[in-house]
Amino acid sequence: MYCVPPIEHILKENLSLTYAQTSLLYSGPILMIAVTAIPAGLLTDRIGIRKAAGIGAIILAAGSALRATATGPASLLAFTFLYGVGLGWSFPNLPKLVSLWAPKDRVGTITSIYTVGLYSGPALALALTVAAVLPLTGTYQGVFLIWSIPAIAAAVIWWIFVSEPPPHEPVKGKLDHGNLQLRPIFQNKNLWLLSTLALLHFFVFYTWTGWAPTLLISKGASASLAGLITSITIWASIPVVFFMPRLSSKIGLRKPFLWGPAIGFITASLLAINVGVSASWLPMLIVGIADAALFVTLLTMIVEIVDTKQVGIATGILWTLGHVGGFIGPVVGGHILDSTGDLRLSLILIAIISAALLGTSLRLPETGPKVSRN
Fold first, then answer.
1. pTM score of the predicted model
2. What's the topology of domain 5-162+188-367?
3. Are 298 and 241 contacting, i.e. CB atoms less than 8 angstroms apart?
4. Domain coordinates of the chain in residue numbers?
């Protein structure tokens, strides 16, 4: 997915698209995550993680590879949506996997381990697509083909090496079809607050990463340099997602890692309006740290605010609302660019949404170990 922002200008020119239309090739998978996350969560609760995520992995790999065969905008968008269905079928299984295998006091640490993978892939795609992969292939179809290889490998590895939870744990991972109780989930106010937080967060993050290369190019950066600078956002996230949950567990609090990042997003968006290319690494760094801290906290808290048996569907709800925001944000940024030729209004919008994120985070209850001990 993240190989698209660095080559948006190429896709726009070769396919005769507007900026808003081009944004769909990046945000399309995000929309499909929103559409499929709840059904995927229900499926996981019923048939188990290995089968549910394995189905998603196959769909993801197929859609990713088929993008390389697209002959025009319509087929490319269709294959992009198919790839997104695979993402939506896989993502809700990650917190579920943690809830089944990890002791409560190690949820944050283990969540951080797989989150490192979620950030490493996008960082490589942003940094290498224009600098290495595009020169190697010469076409955007070739770029899609090269970046489909990790998806295919992931599907194969999943089916070979991943197993269902141990025999003494199955009741935690599966629910009897007739006993599935959705009312407690939909009446959980904290889940809806957390999901609203995800919506606002994903709006900010996907708008930022989707249009940052274009913003930097408009300030005079080459396409290769723009992708490299944008990748700082993701590289900065990797150490944060590994060490931050340990810090959160050590101090026993989660909420500072919600409202703190919101302030970081506001600061970064206002900085990005005024700084040149040479100083653009700073807002990228701030966004990366803020995003990682907030994202891994969301993944940790979803396990803490619902019963283990309901983590799959609860994560599906959070993913759905979150990725609705992630889809809307880049499209709005594209419309702003089509209308004004300037992305600074998008940065102002990011600051406003981040302020709403700050307010929402303050309304959530504290769920950290310090509260549990008390």
1. 0.81
2. Growth Hormone; Chain: A; (1.20.1250)
3. no
4. 5-162+188-367
